[in-house]
Automatic annotation (TrEMBL):
Pathway assigned to this chain's UniProt record: Metabolic intermediate biosynthesis; chorismate biosynthesis; chorismate from D-erythrose 4-phosphate and phosphoenolpyruvate: step 3/7
Catalytic activity: 3-dehydroquinate = 3-dehydroshikimate + H2O
PROSITE patterns: DEHYDROQUINASE_II
Catalytic site positions: 23, 105
GO molecular function: 3-dehydroquinate dehydratase activity
Ranges annotated as spanning the membrane: none
Top-level taxon: Bacteria
Gene: aroQ
Annotated family: Belongs to the type-II 3-dehydroquinase family.
Full protein name: 3-dehydroquinate dehydratase
Length: 149
């Protein structure tokens, strides 16, 4: 059994009440339970984190990189929230830590404002899931596991 980090960035602690037309009615706790069940069905476990702080997210990516190297973690299913569109530091962290990341967006960012169309994360991601609602996290977990099998 290996671990998968499920990492959520800024404002995703507000899931369930934040813009439900975009992000649905499930809470972050619901999402984390969905992820735990999806990982367990594949014989793995999740470690879930959420932070509104860029530096904390960077530290967690570094930690995941160490755990991937030591063999007890497969990678990270990461919704970077708005940092997707702004953070060269997160881009560098993923590249520097050499950690497999599946980028997840609940909404279809390409059907929204143009400032959401560019991602600093996609060029260093192993894959991405966009616009599939919270089910995107499950697809991300399945994708990460099948890539690492
Ligand atoms: C998001 C899309 C981002 O543009 C936005 O800033 C978010 C959530 C999504 O899951 O659809 O916070 O990453």
């Amino acid at each position: 059994m290996a671990s998968i980090m499920v990492l959520n960035g800024p404002n995703l602690n507000l899931l369930g009440t934040r813009e439900p037309a975009q992000y649905g009615h499930e809470t972050l706790a619901d999402v984390e339970k969905l992820c735990a069940d999806a990982a367990a069905a594949l014989g793995h476990q999740v470690v879930c984190h959420q932070s509104n702080h860029e530096g904390v997210l960077i530290d967690l990516i570094h930690e995941a990189g160490q755990r991937v190297k030591s063999g007890d973690m497969l990678g990270v299913v990461f919704n970077p929230g708005a940092y997707t569109h702004t953070s060269i530091a997160l881009h560098d962290a993923i590249k520097g830590a050499d950690v497999p990341v599946i980028e997840v967006h609940i909404s279809n960012v390409h059907a929204r404002e143009s400032f959401r169309h560019h991602s600093y994360i996609s060029p260093v991601a192993a894959g991405m899931v966009v616009g599939m609602g919270v089910q995107g996290y499950v697809l991300g977990i399945q994708g990460l596991v099948s890539k690492r099998a």
